[in-house]
């Protein structure tokens, strides 16, 4: 077995050349993971928080759409369930809060605070 190829990897002080490059070679995968987090995971977490906020702000009288496509008006709210009135025949169904896909009732945004006059 010949050690001649391995001798060329040693520097003048006897330390291997690749020891300093090990840290720099780890930077690329770490940087890729950070970019992956901000591109994929962060937006989905933000969307999930917005959905949770929307579902918790449902009030009686709001028009909602369920995940299954049922459109109705909220008649009563309990902790995790809602009673929704659908159609003109006033039929009522009980659904879970997590099954709400969107709230079609327009909400008024609070007016922005006016700047102090000089």
Radius of gyration: 30 Å
Rounded to the nearest angstrom, the distance between the terminal CA atoms is 86 Å
Total domain units: 2
Net shape? elongated
- What proportion of the residues is helical, as a percent range? 25-40%
Query: Please, how many helices?
Result: 2
Q: In percent, how much strand structure appears in the residues?
A: 15-25%
Low-confidence stretches: none
Structural class: alpha+beta
Strand and helix order: HHEEEEE
Strand order, largest beta sheet: 4-3-2-1-5
* Average pLDDT: 82
Please describe the biggest sheet, giving its number of strands, its sense, and whether it closes into a barrel.
5 strands, antiparallel
Describe, in plain words, how this protein is organized in 3D:
- The chain is an alpha+beta fold.
- It folds into two domains: 4-53; 59-103, SH3 type barrels.
- It has helices at 4-7, 21-56, and strands spanning 63-66, 71-77, 81-86, 91-96, 100-103.
- A five-stranded antiparallel beta sheet has the order 4-3-2-1-5, covered by helices on one side.
- A hairpin with a 3-residue loop joins β2 and β3.
- The protein is elongated.
Any chance you could write out the topology, listing elements then pairs?
Layout: H1 4-7, H2 21-56, E1 63-66, E2 71-77, E3 81-86, E4 91-96, E5 100-103
Antiparallel strand pairs: 1-2, 1-5, 2-3, 3-4
Compact description:
This protein is of the alpha+beta class and 118 residues long.
Give keywords.
118 residues, alpha+beta, SH3 type barrels, 2 domains, five-stranded antiparallel β-sheet, 2 helices, 5 strands
């Amino acid at each position: 077995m010949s050690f001649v190829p391995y001798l060329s990897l040693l520097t003048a002080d006897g330390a291997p050349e690749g020891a300093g490059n090990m840290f720099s070679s780890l930077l690329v995968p770490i940087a890729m993971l950070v970019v992956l987090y901000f591109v994929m995971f962060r937006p989905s977490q933000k969307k999930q928080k917005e959905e949770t906020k929307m579902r918790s702000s449902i009030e009686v009288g709001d028009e909602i759409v369920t995940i299954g496509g049922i459109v109705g008006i909220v008649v009563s709210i309990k902790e995790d369930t809602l009673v929704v009135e659908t159609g003109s025949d006033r039929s009522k169904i009980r659904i879970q809060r997590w099954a709400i896909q969107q709230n079609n009732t327009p909400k008024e945004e609070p007016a922005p605070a006016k700047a102090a006059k000089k």
